[in-house]
Design a protein that fits this description.
mainly alpha; Arc Repressor Mutant, subunit A; Four Helix Bundle (Hemerythrin (Met), subunit A); 2 domains; two-stranded antiparallel ribbon; 11 helices; 2 strands; 67% helix; elongated
Length: 232
C-alpha cells in the first residue's frame, strides 16, 4: 500500500512523487508492471488526483514510468538519456563544480581511448579528419569553433557504443555552454593551441597509436586545467 511519509510542509505533488518512487523500489516492481490507478494512489496518500497526475508526469519525464492509454501507468526501463535531455535549460553550476565535471569528462575520454582505436573504422577516421578541417577553418570564430570542438569529442566517444558515457560527455558540453566563463576558450591564440592538440590527437588516431593519442589528450586536458586555474 502507498503511504505518505513526508512532512506536510511539502507540496502534495512532491510527496506523491517521492511516495510513488519509494513504492516502486520497495515493492520490487519490474519493467512493465502496473502502478495502482490514480484514484487508488490519491486515496492511499490522502491527496488530490491533480497532485497524483503531476507526480506521474514527473516520473514519466525522468523516464521511470510510462502512461499507456487504455492500460494505465507502467514501470519503464530506465535510461539516462531521457533524464539528461529533460534537465532544465539554463541550469547553472559554479566554477568549482564545472571543474569537477571536467575531471569526470577527462576520465571518461581517457579511459575509452583503447576501445575507440579498437572499434574505429576508416569511414569514421575520414569523418574526424573532416571535422578537424572545419575546426581549422573556424579558428577565428569563437562560438562556431566551440561547436565543432564539441562535435569532434562527441564523435570519438560515440564510437565506444557506450550511451551513458556519451550522454555524460555531452552533458558536460551543455553545462559549459550555459557557464560561458567556465573553462572557456576565449582568445584566438588559445584556439590555435586547441587546434594543435586536436591535430596531435587525430594523428595518433590515424596511426592507431594508443600511447600517442593518450599523450595528446593528456596535454590537451592538462593545459585546459592550468588555464582555468590561472584565470580563477
Amino acid at each position: 500500500m502507498l503511504k505518505p511519509s513526508f512532512p506536510k510542509r511539502k507540496r502534495q505533488s512532491v510527496e506523491a512523487f517521492e511516495a510513488l518512487r519509494d513504492y516502486i523500489v520497495e515493492s520490487g516492481l519490474r519493467v512493465g508492471d502496473l502502478l495502482p490507478p490514480e484514484a487508488k494512489i490519491a486515496q492511499d496518500l490522502n491527496c488530490g488526483k491533480s497532485s497524483v497526475r503531476e507526480a506521474l508526469r514527473i516520473l514519466e519525464t525522468i523516464g521511470i514510468v510510462e502512461v499507456m492509454h487504455g492500460k494505465g501507468t507502467v514501470v519503464k526501463e530506465f535510461n539516462f538519456s531521457r533524464l539528461f535531455r529533460n534537465l532544465p535549460h539554463g541550469v547553472w553550476i559554479n566554477k568549482e563544480e564545472m571543474l569537477e565535471f571536467f575531471e569526470v569528462r577527462k576520465a571518461i575520454e581517457l579511459f575509452y581511448i583503447d576501445k575507440v582505436l579498437e572499434k574505429i573504422t576508416s569511414k569514421e577516421i575520414i569523418q574526424l579528419e573532416h571535422i578537424f578541417n572545419l575546426l581549422q577553418k573556424a579558428v577565428d570564430k569563437g562560438s562556431e569553433f566551440h561547436q565543432i570542438d564539441k562535435k569532434f569529442h562527441l564523435t570519438l566517444i560515440r564510437i565506444t557504443g557506450n550511451k551513458t558515457a556519451t550522454d555524460l560527455v555531452e552533458l558536460y558540453w551543455n553545462f559549459r555552454e550555459e557557464s560561458a566563463s567556465s573553462l572557456g576558450i576565449t582568445s584566438g591564440k588559445a584556439r590555435q593551441q586547441v587546434l594543435r592538440w586536436h591535430r596531435n590527437i587525430l594523428k595518433g588516431i590515424e596511426a592507431k597509436d594508443a600511447k600517442r593519442v593518450k599523450a595528446a589528450f593528456e596535454e590537451h586536458f592538462s593545459n585546459i586545467e592550468r588555464g582555468w586555474l590561472r584565470h580563477n
